Amino acid sequence: MEKLRATIKSGDGGAVKAELDVLSGQGHGARELLDEMIESLREVGEAFSRGDAFIPEMLIAARAMQAGADHLGPELIKTSSDSKIGKFMIATVSGDLHDVGKNLVALIFKGNGFDVVDLGVDVSADIIMAAYAENQPDIVGLSALLTTTMGAMEEAVRALKAKYPDAKVMVGGAPVTQDFADRIGADAYAPDAALAVEVARKLISAR
Ligand code: B1M
Protein backbone atom coordinates (compact mmCIF):
# COMPACT_ATOMS: atom_id res chain seq x y z
CA MET A 1 0.00 0.00 0.00
CA GLU A 2 2.99 2.32 0.59
CA LYS A 3 3.75 2.22 -3.12
CA LEU A 4 0.15 3.11 -4.02
CA ARG A 5 0.31 6.18 -1.78
CA ALA A 6 3.65 7.18 -3.31
CA THR A 7 2.31 6.86 -6.87
CA ILE A 8 -0.74 8.99 -6.02
CA LYS A 9 1.56 11.69 -4.67
CA SER A 10 3.84 11.44 -7.73
CA GLY A 11 0.80 12.19 -9.89
CA ASP A 12 1.56 9.40 -12.37
CA GLY A 13 -1.87 8.06 -13.31
CA GLY A 14 -0.38 5.18 -15.33
CA ALA A 15 1.70 4.05 -12.35
CA VAL A 16 -1.38 4.30 -10.11
CA LYS A 17 -3.37 2.03 -12.44
CA ALA A 18 -0.49 -0.48 -12.65
CA GLU A 19 -0.12 -0.56 -8.85
CA LEU A 20 -3.89 -0.99 -8.43
CA ASP A 21 -3.73 -4.01 -10.73
CA VAL A 22 -0.89 -5.49 -8.67
CA LEU A 23 -2.77 -4.95 -5.40
CA SER A 24 -6.05 -6.30 -6.84
CA GLY A 25 -4.13 -9.39 -7.92
CA GLN A 26 -2.96 -9.78 -4.32
CA GLY A 27 -6.58 -9.86 -3.19
CA HIS A 28 -7.15 -6.25 -2.07
CA GLY A 29 -10.73 -5.18 -2.75
CA ALA A 30 -11.77 -2.09 -4.72
CA ARG A 31 -13.27 -0.39 -1.69
CA GLU A 32 -10.08 -0.86 0.35
CA LEU A 33 -7.98 0.51 -2.52
CA LEU A 34 -10.27 3.50 -2.91
CA ASP A 35 -10.01 4.30 0.81
CA GLU A 36 -6.24 4.07 0.55
CA MET A 37 -6.19 6.59 -2.31
CA ILE A 38 -8.47 8.96 -0.39
CA GLU A 39 -6.10 8.67 2.58
CA SER A 40 -3.15 9.62 0.32
CA LEU A 41 -5.00 12.75 -0.75
CA ARG A 42 -5.76 13.55 2.88
CA GLU A 43 -2.03 13.35 3.59
CA VAL A 44 -1.30 15.71 0.69
CA GLY A 45 -3.93 18.10 2.11
CA GLU A 46 -2.29 17.96 5.53
CA ALA A 47 1.12 18.66 3.98
CA PHE A 48 -0.49 21.65 2.23
CA SER A 49 -1.88 22.89 5.58
CA ARG A 50 1.62 22.65 7.10
CA GLY A 51 3.18 24.49 4.17
CA ASP A 52 5.06 21.36 3.05
CA ALA A 53 3.08 21.01 -0.21
CA PHE A 54 1.60 23.51 -2.62
CA ILE A 55 -1.32 23.77 -5.07
CA PRO A 56 0.43 21.84 -7.89
CA GLU A 57 1.06 18.89 -5.56
CA MET A 58 -2.63 18.82 -4.59
CA LEU A 59 -3.63 19.06 -8.22
CA ILE A 60 -1.43 16.27 -9.56
CA ALA A 61 -2.40 13.99 -6.67
CA ALA A 62 -6.10 14.68 -7.39
CA ARG A 63 -5.58 13.82 -11.07
CA ALA A 64 -3.82 10.58 -10.20
CA MET A 65 -6.60 9.70 -7.75
CA GLN A 66 -9.20 10.40 -10.45
CA ALA A 67 -7.34 8.08 -12.86
CA GLY A 68 -7.26 5.42 -10.14
CA ALA A 69 -10.95 5.80 -9.28
CA ASP A 70 -11.91 5.57 -12.98
CA HIS A 71 -9.73 2.46 -13.32
CA LEU A 72 -11.43 0.83 -10.33
CA GLY A 73 -14.84 2.01 -11.56
CA PRO A 74 -16.21 -1.29 -12.84
CA GLU A 75 -15.30 -3.04 -9.59
CA LEU A 76 -16.49 -0.22 -7.34
CA ILE A 77 -19.98 -0.21 -8.70
CA LYS A 78 -22.58 -2.90 -8.54
CA THR A 79 -24.00 -4.29 -11.75
CA SER A 80 -26.60 -1.86 -12.88
CA SER A 81 -30.13 -3.04 -13.40
CA ASP A 82 -31.75 -2.52 -16.79
CA SER A 83 -34.52 -0.31 -15.46
CA LYS A 84 -33.41 3.09 -14.21
CA ILE A 85 -34.06 3.89 -10.55
CA GLY A 86 -34.25 7.64 -11.07
CA LYS A 87 -32.44 10.74 -12.27
CA PHE A 88 -29.67 12.26 -10.13
CA MET A 89 -28.25 15.69 -10.89
CA ILE A 90 -25.00 16.66 -9.20
CA ALA A 91 -22.81 19.77 -8.94
CA THR A 92 -19.97 21.20 -6.91
CA VAL A 93 -21.26 24.53 -5.60
CA SER A 94 -20.27 28.03 -6.64
CA GLY A 95 -16.69 29.06 -5.87
CA ASP A 96 -15.54 25.47 -5.34
CA LEU A 97 -13.32 23.65 -7.86
CA HIS A 98 -12.93 20.31 -6.05
CA ASP A 99 -14.42 17.51 -8.11
CA VAL A 100 -12.82 14.18 -7.21
CA GLY A 101 -15.49 13.36 -4.59
CA LYS A 102 -18.30 14.62 -6.83
CA ASN A 103 -17.04 12.49 -9.72
CA LEU A 104 -16.88 9.47 -7.43
CA VAL A 105 -20.47 10.03 -6.32
CA ALA A 106 -21.55 10.38 -9.98
CA LEU A 107 -19.67 7.18 -10.95
CA ILE A 108 -21.26 5.16 -8.17
CA PHE A 109 -24.76 6.47 -8.91
CA LYS A 110 -24.38 5.56 -12.60
CA GLY A 111 -23.29 2.07 -11.66
CA ASN A 112 -26.27 1.69 -9.38
CA GLY A 113 -28.88 2.32 -12.03
CA PHE A 114 -29.35 6.10 -11.90
CA ASP A 115 -29.35 8.45 -14.87
CA VAL A 116 -26.77 11.05 -13.88
CA VAL A 117 -26.59 14.68 -14.99
CA ASP A 118 -23.25 16.17 -13.92
CA LEU A 119 -23.18 19.97 -13.97
CA GLY A 120 -19.48 20.18 -13.07
CA VAL A 121 -17.75 22.50 -10.62
CA ASP A 122 -18.28 26.10 -9.51
CA VAL A 123 -21.99 25.93 -10.30
CA SER A 124 -24.14 28.86 -9.20
CA ALA A 125 -27.61 28.58 -7.67
CA ASP A 126 -29.08 30.14 -10.83
CA ILE A 127 -27.53 27.48 -13.06
CA ILE A 128 -28.65 24.71 -10.70
CA MET A 129 -32.21 26.02 -10.82
CA ALA A 130 -32.21 26.32 -14.62
CA ALA A 131 -30.81 22.78 -14.91
CA TYR A 132 -33.44 21.53 -12.45
CA ALA A 133 -36.21 22.94 -14.64
CA GLU A 134 -34.65 21.42 -17.74
CA ASN A 135 -33.78 17.96 -16.37
CA GLN A 136 -36.46 17.40 -13.70
CA PRO A 137 -34.18 15.17 -11.58
CA ASP A 138 -35.55 13.07 -8.73
CA ILE A 139 -32.64 14.19 -6.55
CA VAL A 140 -30.20 17.09 -6.69
CA GLY A 141 -26.79 16.36 -5.13
CA LEU A 142 -24.54 19.20 -4.03
CA SER A 143 -20.90 18.86 -3.06
CA ALA A 144 -18.67 21.36 -1.19
CA LEU A 145 -15.08 20.86 0.01
CA LEU A 146 -14.33 24.28 1.45
CA THR A 147 -15.71 25.85 4.60
CA THR A 148 -15.88 29.05 2.55
CA THR A 149 -18.28 27.50 0.00
CA MET A 150 -20.72 26.08 2.52
CA GLY A 151 -22.58 29.41 2.25
CA ALA A 152 -22.96 28.85 -1.50
CA MET A 153 -24.37 25.41 -0.73
CA GLU A 154 -26.93 26.94 1.63
CA GLU A 155 -27.83 29.56 -0.97
CA ALA A 156 -28.39 26.89 -3.63
CA VAL A 157 -30.53 24.71 -1.36
CA ARG A 158 -32.67 27.62 -0.19
CA ALA A 159 -33.13 29.06 -3.72
CA LEU A 160 -34.06 25.66 -5.13
CA LYS A 161 -36.51 24.89 -2.33
CA ALA A 162 -38.12 28.35 -2.59
CA LYS A 163 -38.85 27.91 -6.29
CA TYR A 164 -39.38 24.14 -6.35
CA PRO A 165 -40.68 23.05 -2.91
CA ASP A 166 -40.89 19.41 -4.05
CA ALA A 167 -37.22 19.25 -5.07
CA LYS A 168 -35.20 16.70 -3.09
CA VAL A 169 -31.67 17.81 -2.24
CA MET A 170 -28.81 15.74 -0.88
CA VAL A 171 -25.60 17.40 0.32
CA GLY A 172 -22.11 16.10 1.07
CA GLY A 173 -18.40 16.87 1.10
CA ALA A 174 -15.70 16.97 3.77
CA PRO A 175 -16.86 20.03 5.78
CA VAL A 176 -20.57 19.14 5.51
CA THR A 177 -22.34 17.49 8.45
CA GLN A 178 -25.82 16.17 9.16
CA ASP A 179 -26.35 19.15 11.45
CA PHE A 180 -25.41 21.60 8.69
CA ALA A 181 -27.65 19.75 6.20
CA ASP A 182 -30.58 20.04 8.61
CA ARG A 183 -29.94 23.72 9.23
CA ILE A 184 -29.92 24.67 5.53
CA GLY A 185 -33.04 22.65 4.75
CA ALA A 186 -31.47 19.83 2.72
CA ASP A 187 -33.47 16.60 2.59
CA ALA A 188 -30.47 14.37 3.14
CA TYR A 189 -26.77 14.20 3.92
CA ALA A 190 -24.31 11.41 3.12
CA PRO A 191 -20.72 11.17 4.34
CA ASP A 192 -19.46 9.14 1.37
CA ALA A 193 -20.36 8.07 -2.13
CA ALA A 194 -21.50 4.53 -1.27
CA LEU A 195 -23.80 5.71 1.51
CA ALA A 196 -25.11 8.47 -0.76
CA VAL A 197 -26.64 5.81 -3.03
CA GLU A 198 -28.38 4.14 -0.09
CA VAL A 199 -29.73 7.48 1.11
CA ALA A 200 -30.93 8.31 -2.43
CA ARG A 201 -32.78 5.01 -2.72
CA LYS A 202 -34.59 5.76 0.55
CA LEU A 203 -35.47 9.29 -0.58
CA ILE A 204 -36.96 7.97 -3.80
CA SER A 205 -38.91 5.14 -2.19
CA ALA A 206 -40.32 7.55 0.42
CA ARG A 207 -41.90 9.72 -2.31
CO1 B1M B 1 -8.07 21.91 -1.94
N1 B1M B 1 -8.50 22.08 -0.06
N2 B1M B 1 -7.98 23.85 -2.11
N3 B1M B 1 -7.49 21.56 -3.74
N4 B1M B 1 -7.87 20.09 -1.43
C1 B1M B 1 -8.81 20.87 0.69
C2 B1M B 1 -10.31 20.58 0.64
C3 B1M B 1 -8.27 21.20 2.13
C4 B1M B 1 -8.98 20.43 3.25
C5 B1M B 1 -6.73 20.99 2.16
C6 B1M B 1 -6.14 21.38 3.49
O1 B1M B 1 -5.87 22.54 3.72
N5 B1M B 1 -5.94 20.42 4.37
C7 B1M B 1 -8.53 22.76 2.18
C8 B1M B 1 -9.91 23.19 2.68
C9 B1M B 1 -9.88 23.80 4.06
C10 B1M B 1 -11.24 24.20 4.48
O2 B1M B 1 -11.93 24.91 3.80
N6 B1M B 1 -11.63 23.73 5.63
C11 B1M B 1 -8.31 23.15 0.73
C12 B1M B 1 -7.99 24.45 0.28
C13 B1M B 1 -7.73 25.49 1.37
C14 B1M B 1 -7.90 24.79 -1.08
C15 B1M B 1 -7.62 26.18 -1.68
C16 B1M B 1 -8.40 27.35 -1.02
C17 B1M B 1 -6.10 26.41 -1.62
C18 B1M B 1 -5.65 27.78 -2.05
O3 B1M B 1 -5.89 28.18 -3.17
N7 B1M B 1 -5.04 28.48 -1.13
C19 B1M B 1 -8.03 25.98 -3.17
C20 B1M B 1 -9.50 26.34 -3.42
C21 B1M B 1 -9.85 26.28 -4.88
C22 B1M B 1 -11.35 26.38 -5.08
O4 B1M B 1 -12.03 25.38 -5.01
N8 B1M B 1 -11.86 27.59 -5.31
C23 B1M B 1 -7.85 24.51 -3.31
C24 B1M B 1 -7.53 23.89 -4.53
C25 B1M B 1 -7.35 22.54 -4.71
C26 B1M B 1 -6.89 21.91 -6.03
C27 B1M B 1 -7.57 22.56 -7.26
C28 B1M B 1 -5.40 22.09 -6.15
C29 B1M B 1 -7.21 20.40 -5.79
C30 B1M B 1 -8.60 19.94 -6.34
C31 B1M B 1 -8.51 19.28 -7.71
C32 B1M B 1 -9.79 18.60 -8.07
O5 B1M B 1 -10.68 18.33 -7.29
N9 B1M B 1 -9.90 18.34 -9.35
C33 B1M B 1 -7.30 20.32 -4.27
C34 B1M B 1 -7.24 19.10 -3.55
C35 B1M B 1 -6.88 17.86 -4.33
C36 B1M B 1 -7.51 19.03 -2.16
C37 B1M B 1 -7.40 17.81 -1.22
C38 B1M B 1 -5.92 17.55 -0.99
C39 B1M B 1 -8.07 16.53 -1.69
C40 B1M B 1 -9.58 16.65 -2.03
C41 B1M B 1 -10.07 15.33 -2.59
O6 B1M B 1 -10.19 15.18 -3.80
N10 B1M B 1 -10.30 14.33 -1.71
C42 B1M B 1 -8.16 18.35 0.07
C43 B1M B 1 -7.67 17.73 1.35
C44 B1M B 1 -8.61 16.64 1.84
O7 B1M B 1 -9.61 16.32 1.30
N11 B1M B 1 -8.30 16.13 2.98
C45 B1M B 1 -8.17 19.81 -0.16
C46 B1M B 1 -10.69 12.97 -2.12
C47 B1M B 1 -12.21 12.90 -2.37
C48 B1M B 1 -12.62 11.48 -2.78
O8 B1M B 1 -12.80 13.21 -1.15
O9 B1M B 1 -14.05 15.22 -2.12
O10 B1M B 1 -14.06 14.73 0.39
P1 B1M B 1 -14.03 14.24 -1.01
O11 B1M B 1 -15.31 13.31 -1.27
C49 B1M B 1 -15.69 12.32 -0.33
C50 B1M B 1 -16.74 12.80 0.69
O12 B1M B 1 -16.54 14.14 1.08
C51 B1M B 1 -18.05 12.50 0.00
O13 B1M B 1 -17.78 11.36 -0.82
C52 B1M B 1 -16.39 11.24 -1.11
C53 B1M B 1 -15.92 9.86 -0.62
O14 B1M B 1 -16.70 8.81 -1.04
N12 B1M B 1 -18.71 13.50 -0.82
C54 B1M B 1 -20.07 13.46 -0.96
C55 B1M B 1 -18.22 14.50 -1.59
N13 B1M B 1 -19.22 15.13 -2.21
C56 B1M B 1 -20.37 14.51 -1.85
C57 B1M B 1 -21.70 14.74 -2.23
C58 B1M B 1 -22.69 13.91 -1.68
C59 B1M B 1 -22.37 12.89 -0.79
C60 B1M B 1 -21.06 12.63 -0.42
O15 B1M B 1 -23.99 14.03 -1.96
C61 B1M B 1 -24.41 14.91 -2.99
Bound molecules: CO-5-methoxybenzimidazolylcobamide
Order of helices and strands: HHHHEHEHEHEHEH
CATH architecture of the largest domain: 3-Layer(aba) Sandwich
Number of strands: 5
Strand content: 5-15%
Helix-strand makeup class = alpha/beta
Q: What's the number of helices?
A: 9
Overall helicity: 55-70%
Corresponding CATH superfamily of the largest domain: Cobalamin-binding domain
Give the averaged pLDDT, no decimals.
Answer: 94
Lateral arrangement of strands in the main beta sheet: 2-1-3-4-5
CATH topology call of the largest domain: Rossmann fold
What is the CATH class designation of the largest domain? Alpha Beta
Low-confidence stretches: none
Calculate Rg over CA atoms: 17 Å
The outline comes out as globular
Give a quick account of the main beta sheet: strands, pairing sense, barrel closure: 5 strands, parallel
Q: CA-to-CA gap between the ends? A: 43 Å
Count of discrete structural domains: 2
What order do the helices and strands come in, and which of them pair?
Elements: H1 2-10, H2 13-25, H3 30-50, H4 55-76, E1 86-92, H5 100-111, E2 114-118, H6 125-135, E3 139-143, H7 150-163, E4 169-172, H8 178-183, E5 188-189, H9 193-205
Parallel strand pairs: 1-2, 1-3, 3-4, 4-5
CO-5-methoxybenzimidazolylcobamide (B1M) binds next to helix 3, helix 4, helix 5, strand 3 and strand 4.
Question: How does this model look, in words?
Answer:
The chain has 207 residues and is of the alpha/beta class. It has 2 domains: 2-78, Methionine synthase domain (Methyltransferase, Methionine Synthase (B12-binding Domains), Chain A, domain 1, Orthogonal Bundle); 86-205, Cobalamin-binding domain (Rossmann fold, 3-Layer(aba) Sandwich). It has helices at 2-10, 13-25, 30-50, 55-76, 100-111, 125-135, 150-163, 178-183, 193-205, and strands spanning 86-92, 114-118, 139-143, 169-172, 188-189. It has a 5-stranded parallel beta sheet with strand order 2-1-3-4-5, sandwiched between helices. The longest helix is centred in the first third of the chain and has 22 residues, at 55-76. The chain is globular. The model has no long low-confidence stretch (mean pLDDT 94). Bound molecules: CO-5-methoxybenzimidazolylcobamide. The site of CO-5-methoxybenzimidazolylcobamide (B1M) has 41 residues, from α3, α4, α5, β3 and β4. CO-5-methoxybenzimidazolylcobamide (B1M) binds at residues 38, 41-42, 44-46, 48-49, 55, 58-59, 61-62, 90, 95-102, 104-105, 141-143, 145-148, 170-175, 190, 192-193, 196.
